[in-house]
Amino acid sequence: MMWQSFLATWRAMLTDKGALTLLFIGGIIYSFFYPLPYSTEIVQRVPVAVVDQDRSAMSRQLTRFAMAHPSLQVIAVTPDLPVAQDLLWRDKVMGVLIIPDGLQTDVLAGRAAHAQVAGNGLYLMLNKVALNGLAEVVGTVSAGIELKRLGAGTPSTIQANQQRSPIAFDAVPLFNVKEGYGAYVVPGVATLIVQQTLLIGMTMLFGTWYQRKSFPVAGKRTTGGYIGMLLAFACVAFLNCCYFFGFVFWFQDYPRGGNFGGMLLLLVLFSLAEAAFGMLLGMLFRTRERGTQLMIATSMPVLFLAGLTWPVSSMPVVLQWLRWLLPSTAGIQGFVALNQMGASLYEIRHEVAGLLALLLACVVLGWWRWRRMEETGVDLNKA
Q1: In terms of domains, do 124 and 65 share one?
Q2: Residue range 4-26: average pLDDT?
Q3: pLDDT digits (tens, 9 = 90+) for 248-306
Q4: What CATH number did the domain enclosing 154 receive?
Q5: CA distance 245 to 207
Q6: Same domain for 296 and 255?
Q7: pLDDT tens-place string over residues 337-352
């Protein structure tokens, strides 16, 4: 009975065009469509303007350094502040470097000199890159001036550099080596895509079976029938995860393969928990469209509850506990830790325990609901 249910469920999935699109084709489309906006990974060549009111050799050096910065693109150099403000208000530039009159005079006289940086706060990422880039330009020129002063009082340039930076600092990204947004968000969202497409497809199938009063497993609801259907849906989740974690991450060149063995074990557990959760959810719907409406409306809240884009500590205590009722919570955290960071199974023991508890709870409730379903319908294998 178990294998008959397994094969009948696969046949039902493959013969329903809507479910087939969601369960298999939807993930393929998402795998190329979703990472596309993040393909450049980091923001570069952000337009900025320079207000040069000093018109000195030092101000021209600041302007040249800004032009040479890989994150900036100087599109205007003007002595008039209103011109730069107009460019900023019309979104022509995302940042402005203001070099006040008398900057070089103050530096040569040993007085404190100040350069101002302004940005457009409406565009968070562009504003951050513009302000950081302009600050690096000012800092680089300032460091060069300080080295010249130190060099005048020391025997060698090496000693001057050592006095300028007595402690060497080298920033090396460990996991997100490109420090890009795509490598940060896509690996987590991939797990959510697998979950939501599977849940939509399953609720669509269960709603269709109820509407048509037909069911792929006819007759008495047995344990074997439940397990067979559970394994069929779990295989879909497993295959979709393998596609994302294997091909997509390699194709998009995202960090991957940190703990391959641990990822496979968690993948089996996640697939079973997600299938059990989907069956329990699907048996609550009576129409084909209702599950789709619910899953689409809840996709963004589910992503925030996973703790990927919103810190868990900032959530209400109630949500911190309720979020574990979703497979994606433990799945996203666990897969990112194993696949991108190379964590051990012991380090994700909380996620493993959460998925195990969710699997057991969904199987118990799902089996109870399974036995209560009406024993009417036809066997799709004989239809």
Answers
A1: yes
A2: 90
A3: 988 888 888 778 889 999 999 999 999 999 999 998 888 888 888 888 888 889 989 99
A4: 3.40.1710.10
A5: 30
A6: yes
A7: 998 888 899 999 999 9
